[in-house]
Amino acid sequence: MADLLGLALDLAERAQPGEEVEAYVSRVRETDVKVFDRKVESLMVAERSGVGVRVIIEGRQGFAWAGSLDLDVVETALADARDNAEFATPDDCQGVVTPEEARGDAPALDLWSEDLGQVATEAKVALALEVEAATLAADPRLRGVEQAIYGDALAESAVANSRGVSAAVQRTTCSCAVIALAGVNEATQTGYGFSAGRSFTDLDPEVAARDAALRSTRLLGATQPASRRLPVVLDPLVTRSVLAVLGGALSGEAILKGRSVLVGREGEQVGAAGLTLCDDPTDAEAFGASAHDAEGVASRRNELIVDGVLRGFLHNAYTGRRSGTGTNGAAIRGFASTPGCGARALALTPGTRSAEQVMAAAGDALYVQSVSGLHSGTNPVSGDFSVGAEGLMLRGGAFAEPVREVTIASTLPRILLDVVEIGSDVTWLPGGAAGVTLLIGEMSMSGASPPVLASHNPE
Amino acid sequence: MLATDVLQRTLHAALRHGGDFAEVFVEHRSSSNARLDDGRIEELVSGHARGAGVRVVRDDTTGYAHTADLSESGLLAAAEAAAAAAHGADGEVRVIDLERQHTARPHEVRDAPESIEKSRKVDVLRRADDAARARGAAISQVNAAYADGRRRILLANSDGLLAEDDQVRTRFLVQCVAVGDTGMQTGMEAPGRSVGFELFEEIEPEEVARIAADRALAMLSARPAPSGKLPVVLRRGAGGVLFHEACGHGLEADLVGRDASVFKGQIGEQVASPLITLVDDGSYAREWGTYAIDDEGAPAQRNVLIEDGVLTDFMWDHLRARKEGRASSGNGRRETYQHLPMVRMTNTLLLPGDEDPDRIISGTPHGLYCAALGGGQVNTATGDFVFGVTEAYLIEDGEITEPVRAAQLIGNGLETLRLVDAVGNDFDTWAGTCGKDGQGVPVSSGQPTLRVAELTVGGTAGS
Question: pLDDT (tens digit, 9 = 90+) per residue, B391-436?
Fold first, then answer.
C-alpha cells in the first residue's frame, strides 16, 4: 500500500512551475474460479495495476494512463499527459483538488479483510464446487447449472496531487454466484443466486444455491400475459439496478452538460412524499464504501432526494466548481480515465413494512424478478424507461402464474412519483446501490395483446 | 515482440506439471481519445499497456495467469502460476518447435494512428460540432469523440503455432441532445472500422453529426411507442444487433457445450425462415469486428451459421473445437491479455434477399419501422432477448409516418427467426461493442431491410 501512495506522491512532486499534476495509482489482486459439471473450468490468479496522470497547464487538461507501475513507463505517461494538455480548451474550473476542498472528516472505515489474501486457492475452488453441488441438490426440477463462480478482489488505490492532497483507499470484496437451469421437458428457465461480502467467512453457498433454485423453478411454465397497466413490485435486485440508472441522472456531470432529466429540477417535488434517497459511501455496510473519493476528498453522506424533494447532485471538484456548490466527494474513476462523478452507495430510506407486507399491499400486480436491456432501455436524458422483465403475477398479494417476454415501461420521473411503498428490507448489494422491495403504483406492461396505438395529441 | 527461444522456454515451463496444452499470448496496446463537449475540447487521453497471459489446459480445466512483466523471469513466473492452477502429475515435458505462421491481412492500414498529428484529431471534432449545431437551435448539446486503438498481438502455443497480428481501429462518435416542448431527446451515430485515420475519407464528420442531430430532433416530435405485438420492419444496418442477440450468442459453442443454448442439438434442422442466411465473417475487409488472426492465433474466416433457414454450424474457439476434434472457426477472442479467450462473434451478417425495401414497407399495412437500435441483451438459455429502439416510426397504410419513442423490442430468438417474412436487397452494417462474461470486444452486425411478422413492442402508449 505504502508503495502505491509513494509512487503517486513522487509523480505529483514532479510538477513544473505553472503546472498542476495529479497521479492516481491502483492495484487489484484477484482470484476467479469458474466451475462447470463438477469440475474446475478455469482458475485465474492475477494482479492488475496501472497509473493515470493528469496535468493541468493554464486551465488546459491533458491525461495519459499506463497499465504498469514501472517508473520508466509512468514517466512516459507524465510526458504524454503534458503533451495532450496543449490541445485542450482552457477552462478556469479545471484543476486538481485543493487542500481546502479536500478538507473534511474522513470516516475511519475498515473495509479490508486480511484473511482474504490468506485463504488458500484450494478453499476458494472448493467453495465454487460447493455452490454448484448445493444448487443441483436444491430442487429435482433443476436440469443443470450454467455456471458457478467464486471471485474475490483485494483492491488498493492512492491519489496524490501537486497541491498537497493525498489519500489511499483499500478494500476487499468476495462473492460466489450461480445460474441454475430449470425445466427438463419444458422451456428452460434460469435463476441467479449469489452471496457476497468482504471476508471469505461472509459467504454462504447455501444462500446462493437456494436463491438460484427458487428463482429458476418458480418461473417454470411462464407465459406471456396480456398488455395492460398495473402496479409493479420490484425485487430488491431490480430496485438496485433502477437506482443505479437514477444515479446516472444525479451525476453532476450529466446535470452540467444538460444530459439529465433532472436538470433544473432542484427544490422541486420529483418523487413521492416519503421517498428519501442518499448516497452514503461512509456506510461501511455498502460495497462501494470508502473514506475518500477518487480525488482524495473525504467521503460524506449526500442527501439527494428528501421526502420527494430534489436536494442536490453528486459532484467532483470540476463539476462542483462549475456548478458553484463545490465538490461533495463524489469523484469516481479507474486509472485509465479522468475523474467522473457518481454514486457509490445509493440507498432509499427504508419503510416500515416487510417485503411480504409490501406484496400484500400491491394486491393484483406484477412482481418483477429480473430485468434485461437496462443499458439500451433506459435514457437518463429523456427519462424514458422500457426494459424486458420476467417474474410472477401477484393475485391478492400472493405469487400466482409466472410470466416472461414482457416489457415494463414508464419514465424515471414517473417511477419516482409513483412509488407507493418502500420495503423495510434494505440490503446492500454489489453494484453501487442497495436493494429494497419497491411498489410502483402503475407501469405499462407489454405482453401478447394486439397493439393499441395512442391517439395523436396535438399539444 | 519476444524472442522465439523465450517463448519456447515459457511454454516448457507451462507444461511442467503435465498440462495438455499451453499458450502464451503477448499484447501491446495503445489508444488515444479526444473528446469535445459543449464546444470545448475537454481533454486528450493517451494510454499504453503491455503484458502477457499464459494459459495451461489439462483435461477440462484451464489455469491462467498474466503479467505486465515481459522479461523472461516474469513470463516464467506466470507460466508457473498457470501450470499450478491446472496441476496434475509432473509429466514428461514435450519439445515444442514453434513455426511462424503468416496470415494474409484482410486489408492494409494506411494512416496509422500514431502518425497523425493530434491537431487533426481535434479538427474532426470541431467540424462535427459546427455541423450538428447548424441543424437548429433546438440542438442544445453536442458531444463528439474520436478514438483510435492499435493492438499488436503474438501467439505461441504447444501445438507449435507462432502467429502475430497488428490490429488498428478508428471510431468516431457524435451524440446530440435536442430540447423542445416534450423535454430532452438524444440522438447518436458512431461509425467505426478496422482502419486508421483514412476513416475520415470514407465518412464525413459533418454527415455523422447531421445524422445524430436529426435523430434527436426527430425524437422531439415523437409520441410514445405503441405496445403489444405488431409487425416490425428493420432498416438496413439498424437491426443486425437483433440477430446478434436473438441467435448469434446462442450459436457460440461454449454456451452450447454448457447446455445453455436453445440451439443445442439442432444442426441440420430448419431453425429459421428459409429467407435467412446468417454468417459470421471475421475476414470482412475494413469492418469493425475484423482481424487477421483471432486471440488464439487462428485465422479469421467466413463461417456460415444458418443457410436458407437451416442451422449449419456453431462458432468455435480452440478449446471447444479441440474437444470435438475439429478446427477452430477463428472465433476465440479476449478483451486484453488479462482475460481468458472464449467464443465470440466478429461481424455477424444476415445476407440480403431480393425484395425491394420500399415494397417491404408498402406491403406492411400497419407496424413499426425501426431506423436505429440501441443495444440489446439475450438470455441464451431461454432465447429471450430484448433491445432498445433509438429511432422509430409508425407504419400506417404502408407508409412511414410519425416518429415514436421509448420502444423496447422483446422476443424469443427461435420464434423471431421463423417470423422473418420479407428480406430486402439492400445492406448496411453497424459497429458496436459486445459484452459477454464481463469482456467487451468490437463487433459489427449487418443486415438488409427486413420484416419480422410479429414482435412484442414495449411502449407506454395505449391506456
Answer: 999 999 999 999 998 788 999 998 999 999 999 999 999 999 999 9
Per-residue confidence in pLDDT tens, chain A, 459 aa: 559 999 999 999 999 999 999 999 999 999 999 999 999 999 998 889 999 999 999 999 999 999 999 988 999 999 999 999 999 999 999 999 999 999 878 889 999 998 898 999 999 999 999 999 999 999 999 999 999 999 999 999 999 999 999 999 999 999 999 999 999 777 899 999 999 999 999 999 999 999 999 999 999 999 999 999 999 999 999 999 999 999 999 999 999 988 899 999 999 999 999 999 999 999 999 999 999 999 999 999 999 999 999 999 999 999 999 999 999 999 999 999 999 999 999 999 999 999 999 999 999 999 999 999 888 888 889 898 999 999 999 999 999 999 999 999 999 999 999 999 999 999 999 989 999 999 999 999 998 765 444 333 333
Considering only CB atoms, which chain B residues are within 8 Å of A67? 47-51, 68
In chain A, residues with a C-beta closer than 8 Å to the C-beta of B65 are: 44-46
Whole-model pTM? 0.91
H or E element: which one contains B209? helix B205-220
CA A215 remoteness from chain centre: 22
**In this structure, what is the dihedral angle of CA atoms A134, A139, A145, A146, given to the nearest 10 degrees?**
-130
Establish how many alpha carbons lie within 13 A of residue B287's alpha carbon, considering only the half-sphere containing its beta carbon.
Answer: 30
**Is the Cβ of B71 closer than 8 Å to some Cβ of chain A?**
no
Query: Hey, what's the cell of B385?
Result: 432477448
The one-letter code for the residue type at A145 is V
- Give A100's contacts (C-beta < 8 A, 6+ positions apart): none
Q: Which residues of A touch B139 (CB under 8 A)?
A: none
Chain B hits for A41, Cβ within 8 Å: 60-62
CA neighbor of A297 nearest in space, from A267, A272, A250, A333: A333
> Measured between alpha carbons, how far is B9 from A336 in angstroms, rounded to an integer?
33
DSSP characters for A250-290? TBHHHHHTT-STTTT-TTSB-S-TT--EEE-TT-TTSTT--
Question: What separation in angstroms does the CA of B64 have from each of B148, B268, B436?
Answer: 29, 36, 18
**What is the maximum span of chain A, computed from C-alpha positions, in angstroms?**
73
| d(C-alpha B261, C-alpha B342), whole Å | 15
How far A397 CA lies from chain B's nearest CA (Å)? Answer: 24
Indicate the SS3 state at residue B369. strand
Nearest to A333 by CA among A323, A342, A325: A342
With an 8 Å Cβ cutoff, are A449 and B405 in contact?
no
Does residue B450 belong to the interface with chain A, where contact is any CB pair within 8 Å? no
| B33 and A CB contact within 8 Å | no
Which helix (H) or strand (E) element contains residue A181?
strand A166-182
Give the span between the Cα atoms of B442 and B439, in whole angstroms: 10
N-term to C-term CA, chain A: 61
d(Cα A447, Cα B396) in Å, to the nearest integer? 22
**ipTM, two decimals:** 0.89
Residues in chain A closer than 8 A to B64 (CB atoms): 42-44, 46
Q: Point out the residue among B44, B81, B340 whose CB comes nearest to the CB of A45.
A: B81
Identify all chain A residues contacting B68, using CB atoms and an 8 Å cutoff: 49, 67-68, 70
Give the sign of the dihedral formed by CA A134, CA A174, CA A151, CA A192. positive
Angle at A279 (CA atoms; ends A278, A285), nearest 5 degrees: 105
Q: How far is A352 from chain B (nearest CA, A)?
A: 31
Q: Does B68 touch chain A (CB under 8 A)?
A: yes
The B residues from 182 to 201 touching A (CB cutoff 8 Å) are 183-186
Comparing CB atoms, the residue among B51, B228, B408 nearest residue A67 is B51
pLDDT in tens, B288-319: 999 999 999 999 999 999 999 999 999 999 99
Task: Please count the other Cβ atoms lying within 10 Å of the Cβ belonging to residue A176.
Answer: 28
